[in-house]
Structure formats: structure tokens, C-alpha cells
Design goal:
The chain has 298 residues and is of the alpha+beta class. Helix content is 50%, strand content 18%. The strands form three sheets. A four-stranded mixed β-sheet has the order 1-3-4-7, covered by helices on one side. Strands 2-6-5 form a three-stranded antiparallel β-sheet, with no helix packed on it.
Length: 298
């Protein structure tokens, strides 16, 4: 929540949450050796999963992966590749989705920056004949998605909390503005329309917060409905956070669009966090399955 409140562009979620979860589950000498350095902040690990379709599912993986072998292809929207020392690459192996742990300075790996509306550091990762060995393999061949899925669940929960923090900051800014901005000889917060708008913000922020905290408790307690709780929290936070940001612009008026004001940046950060680790539509499918509905893709 505090990362979201500050609008902090940090590799924390990708490295300390998602990558750490993958490495812990995979085990092995290399993974275990990397974790202490990551905990100390001496190394940063990112993930290369998404490809041309932008879909976050195993069927979308097209990059051929073998260890030993060679990697040739590209990955998109790789976070913080400019500061990452290591990268987990997920591709399609002979046995199914397979994960490799590679140092970013391995010959043949090149990162090219992508434009981002939020200022997040996103990259295209080009893999040109990258030599791989058996030691690069994380877990068993074909177990890549099994390793990644729990990590994405934690990443979704972390992004939900980030959205809550950013939305709370928007609420605080709007209430402060409504108290101090005078129009027609009185603070605009004394007008019922503005009061109700701020109350709407409060409702959305608190609902997203409690869904997120509930999901965190369910995961910690290993409850059977934890996956659905995380999915509900992420789906709701992503949509409610955008409602808060959009209504915030209406309350703040023109000043909220100025570069000098934090509202526009918070709005962008909420949008970006809502897309990371699965968008609202993806998580609503998880909720639908959990309540007994069969989801038909396409």
C-alpha cells in the first residue's frame, strides 16, 4: 500500500515477490544461491513471460526452450531489465512450459526499452542464440507454469495492495482539495454533489482494501478459497481504483491534469498495476469458475 501511496517505481514486486516465489518453489543449487543476494538487495531478478499475444496463459508461450540448447526469440514487457542481474525465462519445452534462470549478462541477451505512459521501466528482451545448460533449468522440464502460477497469485495480491494505496492517496488529495477550494464564497466540500463524490471514493477504497486484506488472510491461512479471494481482490481493485482516479479528476478539476500535481501519475500507476499479474477480466474468470460457472474462452 505504501509503494502505491508514494507512486514508487520499484522492482520490488517483480523481484522480491514474484521471482522469489518461483525460485523458492523451484529449489536447486543456483536458485538457493541467488536468494540471499536478492534479500540483501545485491541482485535483482525479473521475469520474461509475455510474448506477441500479450496473454498470460501457458498456451500463449511460443518461445522454444531447451536446456542444454539455444534460445532465439523475444519477450515483451520485461520489467526493470536495465537493473536486473538475472532473469527467469518461461518458454515452451518438449514437456510443456519450462522455466530457465539466466544471468542478464549471458551472451546473446539484449534489452531494449519500451515506451511507457507511467514511466515504468519495461523492455523487449531479445534472445539471439543464447546458449543454455542443464544448470539453467528451474524445477523439472514442463513444470514452468506450475512454478509461475503461485508466484503470479502473490504478484496479483501485491498489485491489489499497491492500487489500494494509490487510491487512498487520491481520496486524501480530493478531500484536502474539497476543504480548501472556495467557489461561490464557500468550500466546494460544502456542496452535496462533491460530498457524495468523495463518499463514493471512500466506498471504493475501503471495499478494495478489505477484499485485499481478506485475500491476504486466506492465503496465509491456506484456506481452500484463497485463489478466488485473490482473484476477486485484484479484479475489484483494478476497476475500483480506476473509478477513484477518474472521479478524482472531476473533483480536482484542471489542476489534476497538470504535471506538477500527483493525481495524473497516481491514475497511471493504478492503470498499470491493474494490468500487471493479470487484468480484471482474467481474474473474473477465476471467480466465475470458483462459484461453479464454466468459463468459455474466445
Amino acid at each position: 500500500e505504501e509503494l502505491g501511496r508514494a507512486g514508487c517505481p520499484s522492482p520490488f514486486v517483480a523481484s522480491a515477490v514474484v521471482a522469489t516465489t518461483v525460485l523458492t518453489a523451484a529449489g536447486g543449487r543456483r536458485a538457493r544461491g541467488l536468494l540471499p543476494a536478492m534479500a540483501a538487495g545485491e541482485r535483482i531478478c525479473t521475469l520474461a513471460v509475455l510474448e506477441e499475444t500479450g496473454r498470460l496463459d501457458p498456451a500463449a508461450l511460443a518461445l522454444p526452450v531447451d536446456a542444454p540448447g539455444q534460445l532465439t526469440g523475444r519477450k515483451l514487457f520485461v520489467a526493470d531489465a536495465h537493473v536486473a542481474t538475472d532473469v527467469i525465462v518461461l518458454g515452451r519445452g518438449g514437456a510443456g512450459p519450462t522455466a530457465l534462470l539466466l544471468p542478464m549478462d549471458r551472451p546473446g541477451i539484449a534489452a531494449h526499452p519500451l515506451d511507457s505512459m507511467t514511466g515504468d521501466k519495461l523492455f523487449e528482451l531479445d534472445l539471439a542464440g543464447v546458449e543454455t545448460c542443464a544448470d539453467d533449468l528451474l524445477g523439472a522440464p514442463g513444470a514452468g507454469w506450475t512454478l509461475l502460477a503461485p508466484a503470479l497469485r502473490l504478484g496479483a495480491l501485491a498489485r491489489s495492495a499497491e492500487i489500494v494505496g494509490a487510491a487512498q492517496r487520491v481520496l486524501d488529495l480530493c478531500v484536502e482539495h474539497a476543504r480548501g477550494r472556495v467557489q461561490g464564497g464557500r468550500p466546494i466540500g460544502s456542496y452535496q454533489a462533491v460530498q457524495h463524490a468523495c463518499a463514493d471514493l471512500f466506498r471504493d477504497v475501503e471495499s478494495a482494501r478489505w477484499l485485499t486484506w481478506e485475500a491476504e488472510w486466506q492465503l496465509g491461512a491456506a484456506r481452500p478459497d484463497a485463489d478466488a479471494a485473490v482473484a476477486a481482490a485484484k479484479a475489484y481493485a483494478a476497476e475500483a481504483g480506476l473509478r477513484v482516479a477518474r472521479r478524482g479528476h472531476q473533483i480536482m478539476g484542471a489542476i489534476g491534469y497538470c504535471e506538477e500535481h500527483p493525481l495524473h501519475l497516481l491514475h497511471k500507476r493504478i492503470l498499470a498495476a491493474g494490468l500487471d499479474a493479470g487484468d480484471a477480466a482474467l481474474h473474473l474468470e477465476t471467480v466465475a469458475r470458483a462459484i461453479g460457472l464454466r468459463v468459455v474462452s474466445g
